[in-house]
Amino acid sequence: xxxxxxxxxxxxxxxxxxxxxxxxxxxxxxxxxxxxxxxxxxxxxxxxxxxxxxxxxxxxxxxxxxxxxxxxxxxxxxxxxxxxxxxxxxxxxxxxxxxxxxxxxxxxxxxxxxxxxxxxxxxxxxxxxxxxxxxxxxxxxxxxxxxxxxxxxxxxxxxxxxxxxxxxxxxxxxxxxxxxxxxxxxxxxxxxxxxxxxxxxxxxxxxxxxxxxxxxxxxxxxxxxxxxxxxxxxxxxxxxxxxxxxxxxxxxxxxxxxxxxxxxxxxxxxxxxxxxxxxxxxxxxxxxxxxxxxxxxxxxxxxxxxxxxxxxxxxxxxxxxxxxxxxxxxxxxxxxxxx
Length: 339
Fold this sequence. Notes:
By secondary structure, the protein is α/β, with parallel strands linked by helices. It has one domain: TIM Barrel (Alpha-Beta Barrel), CATH 3.20.20. It is built from twelve helices and nine strands. The strands form three sheets. A five-stranded parallel beta sheet has the order 1-4-5-6-7. Strands 2-3 form a two-stranded antiparallel sheet. It is globular.
């Protein structure tokens, strides 16, 4: 993260920590059931979303080892026991197999990612998949932290969003950046261009985090969620948040990860059109090296999963399943329905 971005984070984080209370604005009622934005709202209120990267996909030093359909099926069979919605990050290198497998396994909603806004291959794949699975794919996210990492400037990203909206008018289009881009209106038309909001809200990357408790980290996410909800009547689905479970010997432990998620479920306001996806499905040890060039050393990048790289559920899943059984009600916030 460069100096300008760090300064932006620090300035906003200080303001947010000082906020004592917020009053989220009510979201407008749904319009027609076929409206793309209403489809996103309906999905948020009825499924649990989890961010998913196939376990055999790796990207190291620019070299891509693509995902296989066989491994995707194995991954999604594990996830389907607890989740009904998926958010992906790209639509190439085997990840374009996800919708077909997800449909076969009974997933009910998918937000399809495009990693590179200029990729014609991803653009073609998205069009093909939306036409093949129109009921499953409720949204498309163009880019992931594209502005933060300075891979492209806003005019490029905005043009890609507008191009997809023209090509696929029945699907809601968005992008995904850290929360302060939305709250700062930077760029000025950033929120206006998107059909729904898919921000990341990571306490870990705030300048005060090392002195904060897990409870304070959760409180920060809740406050940011309230500010985002109050800012717009568009659906707000937090795409990334949480705590990693490692590496061993650090403050990042399986118990702290479980505490974060169970506390967030209890505290996040249960409003229509406001929620949090679970981040993320599986551990990926290659992500530490992959992120180093853009954001510096973060050994914890390999431990974000709610499941290990081998597919074993972590402590957090035991805790979440207990909560879900106790609150078997349709989705609201992070909790979601049981099945």
